[in-house]
Amino acid sequence: MIFVYKSTSHNVWVNLSFEDWILSKVDLTCRRILFLWRNSPCVVIGRHQNPWLETNIAVLRDKGVLLARRRSGGGAVYHDLGNMNCTVFTHRQDYDRERNLHLVCEALNRGWGLDLSVNKHHDIISGNQLKVSGSSSKLAKDSAFHHFTLLLCADTANMTTLLRPAPLLSLTNTSATLSRRSSTLNLSSRSHDITWDAACSHIASAFYSAHDITLTNQRVVEVEPGEEGGFPGITKMADKLQFIS
Fold first, then answer.
1. How many whole angstroms separate alpha carbon 138 and alpha carbon 47?
2. How far, in Å, are 52, 89, 99, 121, 145 from residue 86 at the CA level?
3. What is the pairing mode between strands 32-37 and 2-7?
4. End-to-end CA distance of the chain, in Å?
5. Which residue stretches of the chain are H helix?
6. Residue 77: beta bridge partners?
7. Is the distance from CB of 80 to CB of 158 less than 8 angstroms?
8. Starting from the edge strand earliest in sequence, which strands make up the sheet with 42-45, in order?
9. What is the pLDDT of residues 116-152, one digit of tens each?
10. What are phi and psi of 146, to 5 degrees?
């Protein structure tokens, strides 16, 4: 069974907790799920990262930008409404990062004549090697998810400022995972037609088509992940992800 969900929430803690909820509560033996989501301005760090070495906490507080730690590894990322997030849930045996990323590249290349490809780090890059997407994943005993960003029209000035730690702290020796800095590109700079809704439509259609689901049976279901009635226990899960309120 194939499902595509599109979040109506822009709360980073709620959307991240929805990933955890599906991974822990849903039997993925015969299911593949694509979850499309985006957040209000926030910084999300990897499971093994030190927030003080990845962002400037004082600037976050001054700007009212949230900070969250996700369950997956990888580096720190900046989210806002111009940064799309895609999460693919499968049974652990079906986990395949390259398949997911190539599907998205092909969908966007076909839709807008882009030149996107996947590099050895499982980043999506443009033809001039600028990064438009980074990946991370979480593997459980029988299930897994792979999530990745897509820079559509993010505030790159804000991203640069917020992903720069305080000067003295950046010199600290640490065993924590450090982010790999890259030059980035907003896809909207290549085509103004690449909007949130358009990207969701193209990627969802490619996901369904890859599983032989005909156009008439393709549905993108909007969900409010924070609804406790629909997703019991999700409020408590979201509370555990909070750093700064």
1. 10
2. 27, 10, 13, 17, 10
3. parallel
4. 38
5. 12-25, 51-54, 57-63, 97-112, 156-162, 196-210, 234-240
6. 44
7. yes
8. 77-79, 42-45, 66-69, 242-244
9. 999 999 999 998 899 999 999 999 999 999 999 999 9
10. -125, 120
Question: Can you tell me the distance from the alpha carbon of 145 to that of 33, in angstroms, rounded to the nearest whole number?
Answer: 9
Q: How far is CA 73 from CA 36, 79, 136, 156, 218, in A?
A: 19, 16, 6, 23, 32
Check: CB of residue 38 under 8 Å from CB of residue 152. no
In this prediction the pTM is 0.92
3-state secondary structure of 196: helix
Report how many helices (DSSP H) and strands (DSSP E) the chain contains, helices first: 7, 13
Tell me the C-alpha distance between 218 and 56, whole Å: 43
Residue pLDDT, tens place only, 32-64:
999 999 999 999 998 888 888 889 889 999 999
Radius of gyration from C-alpha coordinates of the chain:
17
Q: What is d(CA 9, CA 226) in angstroms, rounded to the nearest whole number?
A: 8
- Other C-beta atoms closer than 10 Å to the C-beta of 132 total 25
Residue identified by tokens 């010199």 is 171
Phi, psi of 82 (to 5 degrees): -95, 5
